[in-house]
Amino acid sequence: MSHMPLVETPVEERVHAVLDDIRITLGMVPGIFRACANNPTILALFWERYQHVMLTGALSPKLKEGIALMVAADEHSDYGIALHSVALEKLGVDPREVLKIRTDPDHAHYDYKDHALLEVARHANNRPFDHAGEVIDTARKTGASDAEIIEALAVAGLASEVSRTAAFLSVPSD
Questions:
Q1: How far apart (Å, rounded) are the C-alpha atoms in residues 48 and 70?
Q2: Is pLDDT at 128 greater than 90 in this prediction?
Q3: What is the DSSP string of 55-121?
Q4: Of 40, 33, 38, which is closest to residue 4 (Cα–Cα)?
Q5: Using CA atoms, how far apart are residues 73 and 64, in angstroms rounded to an integer?
Q6: What angle do CA 101, 102, 105 make, to 5 degrees?
Q7: Is the pLDDT confidence value at 156 over 90?
Q8: Above 80 in pLDDT, residue 161?
């Protein structure tokens, strides 16, 4: 049971418009957005950030969802694990590969650069003050640009925010 009501039928027009946009774009409205719908300004900002981080940019959707799944798994977020596992499967990733990304990302089927970006994201999430320069240098040596490194960090930050907010509010998995 969620500690926050999940908005199903919004009263405010701007909340209705944002939830409709989410439904059209994602094919559904994840519970985290329905929880955020209790604050129209935060919902609009959260959706805008999600679109910029997860739906645009240079990194592939598979890598972005892989980073998000890895972060959710590291944070033991049932909600995030379920959300990003489904997203990867919708992208055509085999369920066995999804499990590998979740439990053993070092052996998931990504190229060298993507593995380095996964490590940047994981390191930033788990040990942000511990030798970050070395991890960034390694990513650059694989061909990752500074823009891609920042994008991987943004994905990790958003995934952590989703995991922690969903956990704190007890948002049920979709």
A1: 23
A2: no
A3: SSSSS-HHHHHHHHHHHHHHTT-HHHHHHHHHHHHHTT--HHHHHHHHH-GGGSS--HHHHHHHHHH
A4: 38
A5: 14
A6: 40
A7: yes
A8: yes
